[in-house]
Amino acid sequence: MTATTTAPARRAPLAGAGYAASLARHRTPLLLAAAALLLVLGSVLVGTGPWPASLTVDLTGPLGDVSDWIIDHRDTHPLFLYFFGHISNAVVLSVRGVYLVLLAAGWAGVTAAAGLIAWRVAGVRLALTAVASFLVCALLGMWVPTMQTLALMVVAVLASVALGALLGLAAGLSDRVFRLLRPVLDTMQVMPAFSYLLPVVLVFGIGVPAAVLATVVYAAPPMARLTALGLRNADAGVMEAAASLGATGRQRLLTARLPLARRELLLGLNQTIMMALSMAVIASVIGAGGLGDRVYQALASVDVGAALTAGIPIVLLAVVLDRVTAAAGDRIGAAPTGRSALFGWALAAAGTVVAAVVARLVSATSWPDGWTADIARPVNKAVGWMTDHLYSGVPVIGGTADWAGRFTTWVLDPVRDGLQWLPWWAVLLLIAVLALLIGTWRTALTAVLAMAAIGVLDVWDPALDTLSQVLAGVAVTLVAGFATGIAASRSARVERLLRPVLDVFQTMPQFVYLIPVVALFGVGRAPAVAAAVIYALPAVVRITTQAMNGVDPVAMESSRSLGATRRQQLLKVQLPLARPALLLAVNQGVVLVLAVVVIGGLVGGGSLGYAAVFGLAQGDLATGLVAGAAIVLLGLMLDRVTQPTRRSGKGA
Amino acid sequence: MARPRTPLVALASATALVAVAGCGAADMTQQASPFANARGAKTVTLSVQSWVGAQANVAVAEYLLEHELGYRVDTVQIDEVPAWDALSQGRVDAILEDWGHPEQEDRYVKDKKTIRPGGELGVTGHIGWFVPTYFAKAHPDVTDWRNLDKYADSFRTAESGGKGQLLDGSPSYVTNDKALVRNLGLDYQVVFSGSEAAQITQIKQFAKSGKPFLTYWYKPQWLFEQVPMTEVKLPAYKEGCDAVPEKVACAYPHTPLKKYLNAKFAGAGGKAAAFLKNFSWGTEDQNKVALMIADKKMSPKDAAKKWVDENEKTWRAWMPR
Fold it and tell me: Is the ipTM of this complex over 0.90?
């Protein structure tokens, strides 16, 4: 996920800001006046109260029927026999194929291959990192699950890249497809992964096929987006030159457009891999096996140490894959070409085979049982100490449980009760005004419609409860994220120290936090907010740091020459200039916090998150799907409300 | 934009072709895990539910299947209802601990005949409301539901909104608690912890600081060894008193836990199926293993080995002849 959040920041549109700002300045009083008028009219004409029952649709019956129909016809209906069945078989066969190859190569072969590929693509330092990472996976006794996850990943990433590239190609070449596809991709991006596990499971049953398909749905959009972006941004001069040389459309595509888009294509690959990896873990809930399953099983016995043991290989895989693909993108054009490159790859392949064969001759292909390190025990001791000493009774500042209680009573309760107290039309009005102030009438319309749809689905109250948790989580995230980001932008050393920490927090499966947050904050909404903050913080910190560093050095220099202090520089120059990027941080923070709502349902967050988990656990399509849809709509609304003015092409 | 359409069309039709090319019907009832039988071994796939008792059953069955009968065992962690679905599709071969799902039983065992009962596990399950024994000793009358309202204040938390908190567990569990609180007219708020892990962690934290709490919990469960709890008496259970979910006003029944096997596996599963049908132990044995896993943090494999080494007489009887 590293690049997901950083990429759009670079492209944040600065050009239109001035015009839009002046427009907004004139618009604001008008808007507020209109809103006040509507408020008075509404209270007289419509009355108060939550979403009226007469405007709701009950989907329990129809959705229950759909679910029953699928279960009854899954073994006989042609749709399943000739379509879904084959997809499912194809997935199983390919995952199995990759898995068998990985097992046959053995730990030595796989490690050697990882090292050599990293060396070819990204140099010696990353090669050493890759080798060390794979050895650590083995050392933790996680070799087989790591290979299972890797096999699943390989298939899912290949499928996502194929699908994404296909969609991206279509969108890159045709304006109509591009216009059609953009809202779809936008929606897919704000959709929390959990919400569509249930339908996939219903069709494919639990297990690897469902997991792979859910992963593809989740991971394909960035590839599609960046492919389209790369193709559309192709240098007009080069294209003109190619056309004047008499190249046909196909030749222009293959020899000019695609090569020019290489950087975007690789960035797309990078993001797709990161998304797929995070989904591979969530998919453990539907029986995907591998590392995610180990994390999930460890939690059943409240064993943070064991969960961490399985979580570390996930982080390592993510770091290696992220760095290697990122390096491949950076080295475009600088890489050696022709014979020497071919020779290098041949050397790499030979090295892999030699390593695999030697290891097989010397011992076995599987990692020796004795060579494992047990980190679970010390970790559990540390967690135990922490919870024993911090939970309550700390002098002066009080324990974490007291903070959680106060946070719930003083922040979460008032916000939730306030939102639920507001008449439904006032909530819609509020959203419309906010969206109009920050975005355009188009974003305002989407936001209002999304919120109204939540009312129609009859989950108004739980949605507002969830919304209050998201708002509280975002507020905490932004305060902490901006502060840390600014600190990191001022000191290179802080940034260097922070980088691995952010990596870990961004890629560590969210399930690992479950026990520690409950142990520290008790069961309820406070730990849910805490988990969300942990998850969303890294992205906000990264974007803030980048935004502050990206401020024009000339402006900084001139302000310094005018005698501005560091504080004045920050407040008067850096922050205003970085405003568009900071708004993007807000937007990302909102979307990411919302993505953890379901995890919050696992620690007592209640409302929509709990309903989504409930639906999955009870196979209750109506509850699960409605809750999932409501989360998506809430995400759509929040995304639109916080979307900075007229973003032309939203990056990834 | 007309030209590039050709490769697109070609690609799309190729994809469609591949999708249909399999031609024959694909059997959705035979969908094994791609990780199964990886090295030519005979594999049994067992489903594990999130509670530790289920882990203990599976750990011991796994150990014996691997060491005595030469099978490779895969385990999949899924919730109860999806597990039934997976069982009917053959993605898992057996559920070793089922707490009673009449709707699923009707659908899969009676109608579709894709699942067969595998006999009793030998453990009787019971769900109820519990308070910590240290609190019950200090206030003996709390163990009758009629007096619960008196203590609502002691059980209040930030989440329960001025009422007493009744801590509930994972969404996958059978619970009538919301209806019970309403129908018994209690001044309580049901707070769902969302997962058993969260619930256990919270109970432990309460116990460490000696605070009173009221929780939905079930027996057999290893946590009783660590945090002794006393059951609160609810109106007595009578056959059929929980038939209508909205009108429940009685305690939970005592349920003999059952095993279920995939029908094909039950017929053609050979020694593994015979062994799983014979597998039946007592509450005490299950708790021993569960406690080793959850409290002593032993790996399920080590815990199973320890139990197997100490109880040969019990498991010898399960071996198929």
Answer: no
